[in-house]
Amino acid sequence: MWVDTRRLHLLLELSRLGSMREVAETHRLTTSTVSQQIAALAKETGAQLVEPIGRRVRLTPAGRRLADHAVTILAAVDAARLDLDPHAEPVGTLRVGGFATGIRVSLLPVVAELAHTHAQVDVVISEYEPVEAFALLADDELDLALTYDYNLAPASPGAALEAVPLWSTAWGLGVPAPAAVEPADVAAYADSPWIVNSRNTADEDAVRTLASLAGFTPRIAHQIDSLDLVEDLITAGYGVGLLPADRPTREEVTVLPLGNPKVVLTAYAVTRRGRSTWPPLRLVLDRLAAQRTKLPTRADAGGESGVLA
């Protein structure tokens, strides 16, 4: 059943003021207009809402019940309108999903700030790889996604989504130490096993592009999400893989710079197109854009492993 909320408001006013004439005067309408709107509401609901009593009318039992419901309905409509007003105070639950480093570096400082400045904004955080996050955004299961791609493997979030870049960082080739810290000769690792991410194909695509340019096809041997576990495998001699160039590693691992071509990871804030004016989302997007972000050190991460990005 579809009901015009303007007519509900007139019915509620009739229940409070007691006469069509007073409702009409209050809203600068004619008595005939008010009568017609109440009649139209009765047709929409399929119930008799008023009955004559002398020269006046009064609400029927159905009319009184609908007037009681109108209080709740109109309050909910007003709350929704205020919530969607881009100039309203941010209030509500924001659902954010993203990759571990993006959450740790970009989102957690914002959440900590909001706890003091906007306590009525509740942020719910889940960890997802970009492809997973894109699908959840499209299904309206997330409000904001923190994703990434590589310059050698750009992501395609889809026309219904819009992405804003947050920060970029160079990646290098992680190999067993000791090794001279000089631009990597990727071809020298043609016979090595390679380590890539298990839940996202972006770094594997970047690895295959690097290898193709160096004249070989890489042997993908391991699929690992945790940066610390990637280092474990490299240390044990089980393979080589991409690692952030400015992330401190253990002594047994050397990260060689990549020069031709470079590998650059870019982090993004991704939303459904047209949703970014919702006050809680706008608040967090503005805070993310204002940051000067760096990748965390091992101490910053508290020893926890993150996804390969």
UniProtKB/TrEMBL annotation:
InterPro entries: LysR_HTH_N, LysR_subst-bd, WH-like_DNA-bd_sf, WH_DNA-bd_sf
Occurrences of domain HTH lysR-type (ranges): 3-60
Keyword Nucleotidyltransferase attached: no
Keywords for the protein's UniProt record, in alphabetical order: Activator, DNA-binding, Transcription, Transcription regulation
GO MF terms held by the record: DNA binding; DNA-binding transcription factor activity
UniProt cross-references to Pfam families, sorted A to Z: HTH_1, LysR_substrate
GO cellular component: protein-DNA complex
Family under the similarity heading: Belongs to the LysR transcriptional regulatory family.
Protein name: DNA-binding transcriptional regulator, LysR family
Organism expressing this protein natively: Rhodococcus koreensis
